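#data-curation
PF: Archiving a pair of folding outputs for the training set. Convention for this channel: one message per protein, sequence first, structure tokens after, nothing in between. First:
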Amino acid sequence: MADKQESYPIEIGGVKRDLRLFEIKPGLKIAIINILGDAELVQVCAEELGKKLSNIDYDVIVTAESKSIPLAHMLSVVTGKPYVILRKDYKIYMGDAILAETVSITTGKPQTLILDEKDIPLLKGKKAAIVDDVISTGSTLEGMRNILEKAGATITVEAAIFTEGDPKKWDHIIALGHLPIFTD
């Protein structure tokens, strides 16, 4: 008989989920939130983040591909603000794109974030809200910051469903909650 998978319970706006714990290296586990396909959770997260962002001045929502795409989309619906997705693979139609390197905790490998040339005018001279599902090490966040700086945008807020790790490191992030790191 298989062992029951370890999990960590969360609740956002009355919606409850049990996040599976995943070992990223021996003796270290993190709770994995995957909002892809979970329309109910995406909607409540967007509504709750929208409330927290309601008094902040920004023109456009920016996120990195891929798990945060539904959040950015629904946050756009809730707030009426457009959104831009920083891609992870370059396509020839992206033209003279802007790139930044990053390393995500969940992949452990270098990744490239790419701003499509067509989206540069949406950011140049604009106020941006960076949005992500989880901010853990800050690597993806740093990559997004680098791209927005190169595109001529000003970052006015950084937000996430959850922060993770040392909560003091993320006290400037608007988040719906904080996930602990699990050690043996």
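PF: Second:
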Amino acid sequence: MIGPGTGVRVYLACGVTDIRKGIEGLAGLAQDQLRQKPTGGAVFAFGGRKGDRVKLLYWDGQGFCLYYKVLEHGRFPWPNVGDGAVRLTSAQRAML
């Protein structure tokens, strides 16, 4: 898989995101809710209502990359809005 290198910052949008949003909508959420520049080189992760879907938004320097994963079985463990800041382990980042 082609993607960001090691040491990249990953921001999780806690709570539920409307997973139907595309690049423009997710970039807006990264800027408005997460208070981060969407073109800053970080990965932004958004989880769906059922917990079985995740979208990752990443600026590669030339344009946005949007990764979409749907689990056949199981759910992604996703923090709620009230959980505050969440730090991912290197193993959790690798799974994303």
